């Protein structure tokens, strides 16, 4: 099947892109990596009148640290995050652990983080991390620039608070402190399918006590969600000795947080090969294991720092 006919614009500046998108009489789509858009157009599930290709706007490329945030331009490809050293500190580790779960190398070499936020698929890894870390989505439209908190940005599958005439210019992620450990675990049927469930976790620990917890759930509702009830159950809890294997005792705080996330935070939908009950079981297990890995990561960072300062 071939795409329905469409016009094609290649702006050279953000202003030109916004002008192209601002024609309210036309249905427009933005092309950055196009790894989801082109497929949907070929299947004619998406039929834009106009495709606005932003790949020739230099100011949308590149990522940099600004204060206590990482600003990721709209043209930064997934593959840029594969080296853990590409971004400083625990955030770089989290992004590196996550990105290898996104499709396969050809997709990662073209797709973009900002494109994931624009597409807003419930199974998007980046979107769940954005919600968990309180990221900000920068957009520019005919009325100027806006900063949209990720926690309020997603409304449902492919639905966000971004207006059709607005262009995502960047995503801002907060840098994570040195006392934070991170992990990301994904469960899927095959390497080339969407995640049935995935979990991102960041644990901040001071003197063996959890001071902050961030848990993002992938494909566990009709949008990416933050497991706030599970997080609350962890605050003030001592990490204690960490189990050696992935199986957690039922009374362990991480196992309890997994059950809370599955029953109170998640709202999974039935899907082929994974009904809602199956997903709840997977969420409970994966949350526990991801928290365990994050705690181990934090402890390893602490040990490395203490060894360095001896």
Automatic annotation (TrEMBL):
Keyword Transcription: no
InterPro entries reported in the protein's UniProt record: CO_DH_flav_C, CO_DH_flav_C_dom_sf, Diverse_Substr_Oxidored, FAD-bd_PCMH, FAD-bd_PCMH-like_sf, FAD-bd_PCMH_sub1, FAD-bd_PCMH_sub2, Mopterin_DH_FAD-bd
Superkingdom of source: Bacteria
Domain FAD-binding PCMH-type as annotated: residue spans: 1-178
Sorted UniProt keywords: FAD, Flavoprotein, Oxidoreductase
Protein name: FAD binding domain-containing protein
Organism: Streptomyces nogalater
């Amino acid at each position: 099947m071939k795409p329905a006919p469409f016009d094609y614009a290649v702006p050279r500046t953000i202003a030109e892109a916004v002008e192209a998108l601002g024609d309210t009489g036309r249905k427009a789509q933005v092309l950055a990596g196009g790894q989801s858009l082109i497929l949907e157009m070929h299947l004619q599930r998406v039929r834009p009148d106009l495709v606005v290709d932003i790949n020739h706007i230099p100011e949308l490329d590149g990522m940099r640290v600004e204060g206590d945030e990482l600003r990721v331009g709209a043209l930064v490809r997934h593959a840029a995050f594969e080296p853990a050293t590409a971004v400083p500190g625990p955030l770089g580790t989290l992004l590196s652990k996550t990105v290898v779960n996104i499709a396969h190398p050809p997709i990662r070499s073209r797709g973009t983080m900002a494109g994931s936020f624009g597409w807003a698929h419930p199974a998007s890894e980046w979107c769940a991390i954005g919600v968990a870390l309180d990221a900000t989505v920068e957009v520019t439209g005919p009325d100027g620039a806006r900063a949209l908190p990720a926690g309020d940005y997603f409304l449902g599958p492919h639905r966000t608070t971004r207006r059709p005439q607005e262009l995502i210019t960047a995503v801002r992620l907060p840098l994570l402190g040195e006392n934070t450990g991170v992990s990301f675990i994904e469960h899927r049927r095959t390497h080339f399918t969407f995640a049935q469930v995935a979990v991102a976790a960041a644990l901040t620990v001071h003197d063996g006590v959890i001071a902050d917890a961030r848990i993002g759930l992938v494909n566990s509702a009709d949008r990416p969600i933050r497991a706030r009830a599970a997080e609350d159950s962890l605050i003030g809890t001592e990490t204690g000795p960490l189990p050696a294997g992935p199986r957690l005792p039922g009374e362990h705080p991480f196992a309890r947080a997994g059950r809370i996330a599955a029953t109170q935070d998640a709202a999974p939908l039935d899907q082929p090969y994974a009904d809602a009950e199956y997903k709840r079981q997977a969420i409970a297990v994966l949350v526990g294991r991801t928290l365990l890995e994050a705690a181990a990561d934090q402890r390893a960072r602490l040990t490395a720092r203490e060894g360095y300062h001896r």
